[in-house]
Amino acid sequence: MHGHRNFTRTNPYFTQDRPDLPTSHPLRRFYDRSNAFVPADNFGPESILRAIFDWPAFSPFIKQVLDEEKFFPYADPLADVTVNLAEAGNGFPWHFDTNNYTVTLAIQNAEAGGNFEYSPRVRSTIAENYDIVEKVLDDDRSLIHTLRLEPGDLQIFKGRYSLHRVTPLLGSRKRYVAIFSYVEESGMVSSPQRAKELYGRVLPIHLERAGMRSDALID
């Protein structure tokens, strides 16, 4: 398997800085993020992860649990089934997901750290509640739940409105988590820029769906 590493600094919303706001504001709180993704084309028909994702009963089960009306397997050949790899010092800082939900399968934990921490229903469709977000970022433990996922645990999590993170990892053993991706529209794939950032490569389908020539260069 070949993972692509990326290093970024991001706020909980994956947005640009807002110099017009106080430095304590959540939109101005930036954290280092470092991890790697093993793209989906590493997992062929013989892969257990691919077998799970393609199992006829799996997607209907996830859809029922999530109670989502618009629910389709991701059509991106690099991103429908991926593995997130992280090692000592890595983690995933506080953030909200840009999609409604995440489906993961724990494969291997680090020697220590790597706990899943979350603050449920912090924001809603009508209120961002920045004051509560700020308290979580300041480590108000009364607002934070901790979950230790073990290998084999399937997690189905709606992270668009619940602030969450993975705590920094410790030790020489790497952490592996499989990610099964579903979207709201049939046939969706990543943008060329997003594919390049996360997986280090751009395929013709990404360029075609973006209306770009197949020989276009992506910086």
**Contiguous helical run count:** 5
Instruction: Report Rg.
Output: 18 Å
CATH topology of the largest domain: Jelly Rolls
Strand order of the largest sheet: 1-2-4-13-6-10
User: Runs with pLDDT <50, length 5+?
Assistant: none
Report the structural category.
Answer: alpha+beta
Counting structural domains, the number is: 2
Identify the CATH homologous superfamily of the largest domain: q2cbj1_9rhob like domain
Number of separate strands: 14
Described by the principal axes of the CA atoms, the overall outline is globular
| Quaternary organization | single chain
CATH C-level name of the largest domain: Mainly Beta
The CA-CA distance between the termini, in Å, is: 24 Å
What is the second-level CATH architecture of the largest domain?
A: Sandwich
Task: Name the helix and strand elements from N-terminus to C-terminus, one letter apiece.
Answer: EEHHEEEEEEHEEEEEEHH
Mean of all residue-level pLDDT scores: 91
How would a textbook summarize the main sheet? 6 strands, antiparallel
Strand content: 25-35%
Helical residue percent band: 10-25%
